[in-house]
Queue: 3 jobs
Job 1
Amino acid sequence: MNLGTLPPLIFDMPWLLLAAVGLPVVVWWMRSVRTRQRRVRLARYAESSALRRLVMVTDPDERGRTVRLVFVVLLTGLALSGPRWGLARGAVSARGIDMAIAIDASLSMMAPDERPSRLERVKQEVRRLRAMSQADRVALIAFAGRSYILTPLTSDDGAIELFLDNLDPSVVGQAGSSIARAIRQGTELLLASDGSADRALVLMTDGEVFEPAEDVNAAATEAGLKGVSLVTVGFGTTQGSTIPIQDGSITREKRDDDGQIVITRYAPELLEAAAKAAGGTFIPADASDKATRVRGALRSLRTAKRKVDSREDHVPRYLWLLLPALALLAYDSWLLTRRRSSSGAASSLPLTMPPVAFFLLLAALPVTLMSCKQAPDPAALFAEGNVQAAMAGYRAQIAGGDTTVRTRYNLGTTLIGADSLVAAAELLDMVRREGDGETRMRARFNAGYASLVMGRAPQNPEAEAAFASARAAYRAFLGERPAEADAKWNYELALRKMPPPQGGGGGGGDSQNDKQDEQPQNQGGLDQKQAEALLNSAAREERDVQGRKQRQGRKPPGGKDW
């Protein structure tokens, strides 16, 4: 079940909120003073009984008019403070290229000679590059001794950000560094894509590799001949740095097989030679504003026209307050004019102007409300079965700054419905560690569910690891909620490892009921049909296997695993 969220409310000029509170008090006081002064002036001419027969001492609607003016000032002050909430979305046309970004995730990228580390600096530049090129389709590749595709070519900022957040040396499989493999895989990925836009491969690394330079140059040359523009971007320093290794709560320095402390150094010569072989561009590590330089190097490439999903976070809502204030003001003027006209008093205001202004404001109000409508609630979209739209909504909330555990839990649950089990399990596990209360318990349950579904995939060589993860999650869950029936059943399935034959055990019953009882239960809002689709998806199985292979550490030839 998705936990509801309230749209954040912000103000452009919050200090004006003091005026919104103080000015109505001032208006009320001024109106009271004016009434008392009028009575004092009239009392100089005659007794109060005579005055009541000769003139109107007080306005019969004095109090109502004061209330209206107070609300006018209050609403105007709130409008001037610039209230914003909600999310406006829309598709705009833009032109972009196809770009694969290969990120070095080997141990050497953890060196702190670039603060806070080489890898973190890479992530910062990737985010800045993505912000400059919203119309580009981007694919992420992580490489060390081997390379892995994290995301295909996509314009989904949420998916890119999710993998960037979780990228570290533990994600890639084989330790070491192989730039040649990353270039070849990036080239193959780009050439397999459809579209008329030019293709570019951006390689971000420290250049320290333990493979022949000829292999790297050959892969770069092949990429250039196939029309892929190669940009190599360096990180680190030539003086080098040690590599910190976190061992529980202790941080130690990386050592080689001989027990010597490893010093990793930035190698610009290899990166410059690779860029030259491909006819591309080399950006050294000491260059400032690397993302802008990368964008400049790719500016001459041919682009394709695409629809880009644009959004405006925190939509201005001042008209929601200003229009009612103007309407109240027009209504008050109309009442005042009507009273003067009925009493025969002269008036300098045309009789028709206030009503005209009032009705014009009423006509403009629906248009204003329609233009400021809020985005659909992702929780409602998920309940309706529109999983993709709900996932896009939660990713938009996270991209807009809402990184609370509640929103990340909702995204993780929605990822299960979208068949992205690896990403869902990782995100829900993060929520479990950071959250508390009901959110933590639900995240633990659904993380176990995702692992259980992955383990039950047919012909999965890594099923045991998935089942072990599911068992651990449900043991912890049942430790706090031992009476939860769904958790007990899913834990039993994880203990069995595979479902029993139809019709066997469980107290009898027909085979159809037995088949239904063998399905794992989920608290994330997925129905039986969605769960069945999760179990039978071949695409999901392939992604799961690849994700687990990435987490298997193997030492490269020669023993150099950084």
Job 2
Amino acid sequence: MGAITEQIGRELAGRYQLEGGLGTGASAHVYLAFDRRLSRRVAIKLLHPGLSGDRQFLRRFTAEAQAVAALNHPNILQVYDWGEEADGPFLVLEYLAGGSLRDLLDAGFRLGPAQAARVGAAAARGLAYAHRRGFVHRDIKPENLLFDEDAEVHIADFGLARALAEAAWTEPSGAVLGTARYASPEQAEGLVLDGRSDVYSLALVLYEAVTGKVPFGADTTVATLMARVGASLPPAPELGPLAAVLAQAAISEPLVRLDAEELAADLEALARSLPAPVPIPLVAAEISRPSAPSRGAEPPVLAPEPTTAMAGLGAERSPAPYFDWAEDEELAAAAEPAATEPVARRRHRGRRVLAGLLVLALLAAAAIVVVRHLPKHVNVPGVTAMALAPAEHRITGAKLRVGALTHAYSASVPAGAVIAQRPGPGHSAALHALVHLTVSLGHAPVGVPSLVHLPEQSALAKLNAAHFSASVHPSYSETVPSGQVISASPSGLRPFGSAVSIVISQGPAPRQIPSFAAGTTWASASAALSGERLVPLEQQQYSNDVPSGDVISTSPAEGAGGVAVGTKVTVVVSLGPLLVAVADVKGDTIAGALAALQQQGLNVTEQVGPPLATTAVTTNPSPGTKVRPGTAITLYVS
């Protein structure tokens, strides 16, 4: 921290006074600062001076800073401001006094499953929010998970990893590998990244937070990354019920892996099912400040900023190793005789030394004889990919013993077969030495994807991508459109390759035309048909039998079944009887009057007048009166 303290006291952008150093890394120094304009403490990330000459990086840095500053979520560290000084660009960030998850782990603390579920759910909520807005973090690690004073987690450095990837000095050029310890398999393969890459890294961070170990560790960066391709998360008993969720979040194939929203939901459900944990202890990062001038040679004092840190509140803490190196002065003094020791005593000691050397020589000779007669070493047979029973038989047949059996998920080795052995095939081992085996649990459980409301073919393709088989069952639905998924079962984590039943909508069930009682009006019939999601159409018709306004009939007929929703139904509504106006036949011949009245459907039943009458005079009912066809008419003649 020597170099970082040189900047303390400096003022940036005319408002940010650097008060102390919070940490340093390959790309930036981080400072505690005071914003004199708003009278608040902030964190300043002052980037590497070498970046100031890279105009492409500065353009990307400005764009990313502006975009990230718009993120507003309680689990994402807030970006307040950004700027550029002569020695490099800087970011102004929200200051959190609770330290990072890395500080917690380095202090020897471990999270329990319930604590990890709550921390992971909060981080996943922040990632889901950012992913919905097009941001991929690319560098999720314990250092980037910061705690506030209430132990609520915040994700730091959104957008910075992407900007640094385009800096001229970044290696490899144009690629963002992030921290290799937590990088996803697709980062190792150089594939296009989406939010599921962050989910994989978060799963490894939570695994380490509980177990203290990062899975898939290897001697080199490349080996570490490639060990994750096609591999499943190794089981660890410390994870308890958290293991199944992390296995889903760390599936090697990104298309089958949980996304951040699904991971948050699963971790929240798990947290609710577990007893409430004790509060997470906070381990604040040290703040370095220059030492005050003094006459003595006292080193600078590194004092932590005051926080609400709570030490030892139930998290598992491993004691730090302690070594006490000391010299045994008495043994050193006895290594050579004093100069004043008598000669006789020295000769006596010489004879004792000679006798001791003779004994050692005899023991060495005996050891050589014994070693020559010891059984020879044997080559360890290869048993990987074999079923456990034959593998054990081969090991014991080689005069070796089967040692510890551990189990791990594997995407390529069937359940019950050997994934790995230690020592490996061909190694030389003494007779009856132990050969430790890792046995496959089969493929890790896979989460059934969300299928509701997807079209049938899309749902089948999604199940196939997740390596599930599907059984399809049709069913009517009043709410789900035809051809879409109504439901899928089972849900949650299921064995790899197992069957999922999906119910596909056939649309609404067929309808039956209602039957209408005598006296049913058009309004009532229309309402009944609309209630069945049918379309009523009115058709009026005269009727001598059905009162005006009442339903005469329907088409399709009343009681007809198998009618699809949306079918048009014609409702015949009575206009009452058809009336005719009695014709005015005054002055017509009798024959002409009779013909006119009969043509109207009227029935002349009586003629009234003199015997030799020839001309029609009037009618009863009188001319113009509206009567039903068939009405009896009296014709008056003269």
Job 3
Amino acid sequence: MASLVSLDGTSFELAEAETLVGRGGREYNDPPKVDVGPLEGGATVSHHHARIFRRNGQWYLRVEPSARNPTLVGDKLIPGGEEAPLVDNIRIKMGEVVLVFHGPSEAVLQSPEMTMADGNGLTLTPTASREPPPVSLAASLVAEPPAVTEAPPKEKPSVSAPRPSDNWPARLPGRPVTLTALGVTEFKRVNPFRGLMIDEEAWADAHDYHRIQGRLHLLTAHGWGIIEGLEVLADPHVPNTVLVRPGVAFDFQGRPMIVGQERRLTLSASDGATLYVVLRWREELTAPQRFWNDLDEYTRVVERCDTLIQEAPPAQPVLELARLKVAGPVRNAGDPLNPGAGEIDLRFRERLSVRPRPDLAVAQLVAGDESSDGKPPRHILGLRYLLREIGQTTGYRARWAGIVRPGEPIPPVSLLYFSGSGKFSFDDAAIESLRQFLGTGGVLLLDTCAEGSAGDFVGASEAAAKKLSLGLQPVNRAHPMLSARHVFSEPPLPGKKDQTTLAEDGGLVLSTVDYGCAWQGGPADKPLPRETVRAALEFGVNVAVFARQRQRPLEIIELEA
């Protein structure tokens, strides 16, 4: 049987299932308890300080959230609510009390009479083995083999030999992951009646019931991980410092973690070391109240989380936010999908499995004189079909943000679409508004309409690009617009021979072919083939996703990769 031994030689036997370690006698509904209060320093141990239990053959210690003084297993500090494995002769310190854990002395009997427990807890007694004694390998190597004049007959396969699939029950997990994360095997709630005495235990049962139910719902219906935010970025002002942005997450045990303000962490490690930025849940007792016995009892529990940098790979329930292989000054990754040495790696962040889809908003920029006759703007039907494709083929929720006039404030959108068939010009106010929009990562698609003078529209687009200090360059095969969602080797709509059909710089995209018309099937008198319409819509989805990912680069990892 496992036991705890104090420095003065006092030994405490541990129950096979679970033992509570603390100060004072056992209370109602407590598991078997070890009272270390009489030991030297026993006053520094909480009434409910830790639990020692066995799971899948391994012993663990879990610190109670209410433990007020620190708990060390070996030399490792174990926060409240977390657990650590125990090995034989390991030193445990609770407050000022030092104990040594001794594991049970177990010998496996290698005899026919030994008993085994099957998966249902029933005791099985196997019969004596009928197999012949094993042959010594060394003897078989030196013994002279008998002369064989003819091939021996092939043995028929044993009918009773187990098939590979017969052993599938042995591969079942010993315990469901959710039960391990919750740490409970039953639900207990208060049964109210007139005259019920309300004490601290009743309060705890009432609150714990709803907390555990909430964690169960979250873990089984949604999972765990980062909900929003908590990006890790290099501090642009302080070398070798990272910033953890505000955000919300749930850890492996379904406990909420909120970082309300930006946090700054300093890196201190030599080149070649791998560091991990992690988030750890903890409870903090606050609002003390002194009772008649001159002891402070805390009236509130604040749930907090710590942001830490560690060299050891994070283990559950600690949540990884980023990792970094140190190589010179810390930097943001130029390509989040392929960070290099010295760049912050965000690819291993665990995202919550089910969460609301982020918006991908699209608006149409319309010249002042267009649609003044009451007709709908050009290609607005094609935009409607494009939005439908975005919603059905991507992880985004497509949102229509309406019509925008040059110079008006641009709503928070990712893609701004403008189509024309002749000359146009943007005044200084419109140029400044577009400059600010492109600076946020948005994309302005200038789409040449087939009706009218395409050359005039292209010339006016190039003049607008010059005012914006942008130099349009042909889109090549490596451009993300050709692979953001659907893969293309080149822009899908053909142009005239040796004509550049697509150019981009700084989020300003110029198309010399009519994508907006293709999105709605082509001109009424010249309908396009189904394959052409499909390719045009898929490319439009690419442009929209490219725009969103220019604004939120991490979504390349979180939604598309």
